[in-house]
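Archive maintenance. Older records in this collection stored only the sequence; we are now back-filling the structure field for every entry so that each record is complete. The fields below show one back-filled record exactly as it appears after the update. Entries are processed alphabetically, and YciI family protein is next in the queue.

ARCHIVE ENTRY
Title: YciI family protein
Organism field: Gordonia tangerina
Length field: 115
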Amino acid sequence: MAQYMLSVIGDVSVYDIPLEDVQDQMAVTSRFNDELKAEGAWVFAGGLGRPDAATTIDNTGPDVIVTDGPYAETKEVLGGFWVVEAADLDAALKIASRASKACAARIEIRTFDQA
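Back-filled structure field:
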C-alpha cells in the first residue's frame, strides 16, 4: 500500500471564524477520521495553527536566518493534512473526495517518495 498526503487548502480567513461557528464541521471531520481508522487507511492527521504564527528557518547560506511568519504571504494556506494508506491513486482519490466533503475545503493529493 502506498502512502498519500491529503493537504487541506483553504483561505487564511478561516482562522478568524469563531470556534463555536465551526463545531459542526469539526464533528463531521472527526467522524471522517473515525471512518478512516476503521477502514485501516489512517496513518496520521492534524490541523495546523495560524500561518502568521509560523517561523521560517533558512539555513541554505552561510548564516541561519530566522524569520517570523510564513514562507510565503498568500490568501490560501495549508490548513491541515491527512497521511493515508491506499492501494493506488484511484483509492486515494476516493478518500480525498470524502475528505474534501468532510472538512469543506479543497484537497491536494501527493504521494510520499520512498526513502
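Update note: The chain has one domain: 2-111. The two ends are 15 Å apart (CA to CA).
Entry marked complete.
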